[in-house]
Every structure is written in structure tokens, then in C-alpha cells.
Amino acid sequence: MTASVLVDARLRLVTAELDAxxxxxx
Length: 26
What we know:
about 25 residues, mainly alpha
């Protein structure tokens, strides 16, 4: 696995968590 793949996976997780938080607030 390359660093870019790890970064992409982490960004996807962060985006999913932010989306979940926004859904709870809204």
C-alpha cells in the first residue's frame, strides 16, 4: 500500500464521520 492510498482511506473515514455528525445536528 502506498501513502496516497492510506491518505485516501483516512479522508474517506473523516468525511463519513463529519457527514454523520451533520446528520445528527440537522
